[in-house]
Amino acid sequence: MRTSLSQAEIDQYRRDGFVVLAEFLDSDELEQWRRATDEAIEARLALDDELSNKASDPYYSRVFTQASGLRRVHEGMHRLVCDARIAEVAGRLAGVDGIRLWNEQALYKQPFANPTGWHLDVPYWSFDDRRALTAWIALDDATVENGCLWYLPGTHLTAGFDAVDIGPNLRGILDVHPEWRAIESAAAPVPAGGVVWHNGLVAHAAGANMTNGGRRAMTVAYMPDGVTYNGKRDEFVYTEGQAAAMAVGDVLDDEETNPLLWPRSTIAAIGG
Ligand SMILES: O=C(O)CCC(=O)C(=O)O
Fold it and tell me: How far is the CA of 107 from the centre of ligand 1 (A)?
């Protein structure tokens, strides 16, 4: 795994809101991520009929197959997702000194899948923070043809916390931010084993899959240590019971749900 970051990569991430690290996992690690993701999805399907409550939405279900909470059903996935080395990269890009796990999701664009509409991530989440970020790990080559990510560079600097649906209106976020229509979009193709890091407030989308092959990705989203609950329950992260026990302003520091990954706490380090 390549965990080094050049200053140019950090600068690019901070300026554009995303950076592509083409060589991230080595070939053995890529195989581990692929196997763990496939097995964890199987394990989830054995427990739940549907991977998400949007699986019945006729447009969304054809955008991608979305599977959250995979580390809770697969020990190997738990280890991969909680890798402190990746969290450290997140911390250095974000410029913070503590990183917690927010969520992990497999996003598999099936052959001939719909595009993923332009959106921001943080407005779906249970905290408002400009430094949260996602590692989008390519399990297959992600190309312009099969639905790689696209960005509106720099939009994280002016974004608010307005959520738009990932639905058939691809440009809904541009109705909220008409000034972004002047920005030239940038494609972010990445080979299998590479990662695209993006800020949770940068506008992003993914193209349609125009091919007969799948486009698999595993995403890990991170939040800075110390963020607080904004009152929006993210159903992929918190149960209704958990949310009922939380108040706006509570620090999101439950070690089961949002473990501190970097720096590792003394207790976690002693425990191995
Ligand atoms: O994989 C996709 O199609 C979209 C991914 C995305 O929006 C994200 O990882 O935040």
Answer: 7
